[in-house]
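Rotation project, supervised by the postdoc (A.L.). Task for the rotation student: set up a whole-complex structure prediction and record inputs and outputs verbatim in this book. Inputs entered:
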Amino acid sequence: MTATVTAPPRRRGFPKQAVLPWLFLAPGLLLALVFKFLPMGKGIWLSFFKVRPFLGDKWVGLDNYTRVLSDHRFQEAVSHTLLLGLGISLGAIVVGFLLALLLEGQARSLKLVRTAVFLPVVTATAVVGELWRLLYYPTSGGLVNGALGFLGIGPVAFLDNPDTALWATMVMGIWMAAPYNMVIILAGLAGVDRSLYEAAAMDGVSLWQRLRHITLPAIRPAMSIVLTLAAIRGLRVFTEVYVLTGGGPAGSTDVWMTRAYTLGFTRNDIGGASAASVVLLCVTLLLTVTVNYLRKRGDVR
Amino acid sequence: MSAPAIDPVRTPAPGAALGRPSGKQRSTPARFDTALGWSDRPGFGLALRILLCVIALAIFAAPFLTILSGAFSRNPSGSSLSFLPHHPTLLNVKVAGERGIWDYFTNSLVIAGGGLLLQLVVSVLAAYALARHRFRGQALVLTLFMLTMMLPEEVIAIPLSLVLGHVPVLGLDLKGTAWAVILPLGAWGFSVMMLTEFMKDIPTEIEEAARIDGVGELRLLWQIVLPLCRPALGVAGVLGFIMIWDQYLLPLIAAKDPTDYTVTVALSILRSDPQVGSGVVLAGAVIALLPSLIVYLLLQRSLVTGIAAGATKG
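Outputs recorded:
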């Protein structure tokens, strides 16, 4: 193969020029085919079967879909996913925006603060999960409960209480995503024309109006991208929940993917798990295509 | 579908992602430098800003200090976290070592090193073909690589674990080997897209000349194109490393038994071990945290540029 590739192309003839790019693309396409598209196809295929090891798979049509979609634990998991995704996306945008406004600037001290604040983004999710399990420690010695103790609020068993566990997960998700958004919003803020701020000051415009009419329009494209990325990521949230609560207590933090994981690996219901994954895949693709379409239309206009 | 891109020509200097290009002459007073009009003169505004910065640090950075102090504290109870270790000790690290944390760490390093290398080689080759050659089916290939970004391990986890247990045609069982994690990470659409966009903006004159001189395609790529791609390679490398180190579900389903776990997955083993306290879990967390921390601090600029550029173009 190397010989064909390195030989100087004397003639811009058809065969060599046509084959060459495919040789370069081969490793990537092969890996994508075997480890991405084949599993996807297999997942779609299996979702129509009752998977029985050693007995052979049995065609069941849409049975897996109706069974999974009508399962109330799965329905709950989907609504948890939507709530969590929406809460984390919006929360992280707001917090990220506030952080960006606070930490915008050239000073070296600000750079240091930004470096430190960005740490949650580069930390592996599993480590963040372990960290927050300890922060949420249910006695007043835990860091969060200690802080709440100062405010006179008694120790809360965040992760052991079905009423608070989902919100606790959401706070951790915001904590992880906000600094990421901060960086994107800072890049947007850097593109704002400074002379606009000066002109606004001369016209005696209030700070709020300045933010509303100069800053926000300038970073709106960055914001919309951040939001859609977050929404799509939010749908397939897994590690955060799996590490922090494992879906518990009593399924109160079960999300789409933890449910599918439980079905597939704990209950050995491969068909049902595949059906759940296929539905998620369709929703993700639909969302992505819609967003891309809207964005393209926005670009043209 | 536009590709995420680090653009060598139009993108402002790397520093721009963290503020304004520093070389620029300051033409307006400092209070017009920021959206909120922060002033750097002493006064109420500055005091307020410092206070808010301290709060931000307390929320986002201080928890990392508790990991550190907990990992080196003799008292291994999660209920007494603080910012400074009491009775500093290496005992927790030693116990974590006895539980095999360094083996898990080695697994992680092998996977991160191999995965990153494979990812970069695959991406560079594919990007070169996409940026420098015109061929039939180009749009389709681009779409396929875009799709790989939408097929994260989470969504295809269950069938992927079946495929890893029995790779079609070859009939191999990859489970329990590092390959089972490395190979699925090889084709990452993001780095292919980013490198393609970057290469497209490198002028072709040198290559044309070299081609006329009879330089082969692989040498052309290795000696001429690649050195010019260094900034983009830095971004692809650091984002790729963070992405690989963050993998959780993939090493989980690729493992045959718990000794195959990566260090991040193994933390849950330490946690559920009734004989060790949270000090040991925190020692494990420090070990799992360290590589990504080092990479981040060394290559912070590439990382931040990559995130800002990738996101502003979607």
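Student's summary: Residues 98-313 of chain B form a domain with the MetI-like fold fold (CATH 1.10.3720.10).
Supervisor addendum: Residues 149 and 190 of chain B are 7 Å apart (CA to CA).
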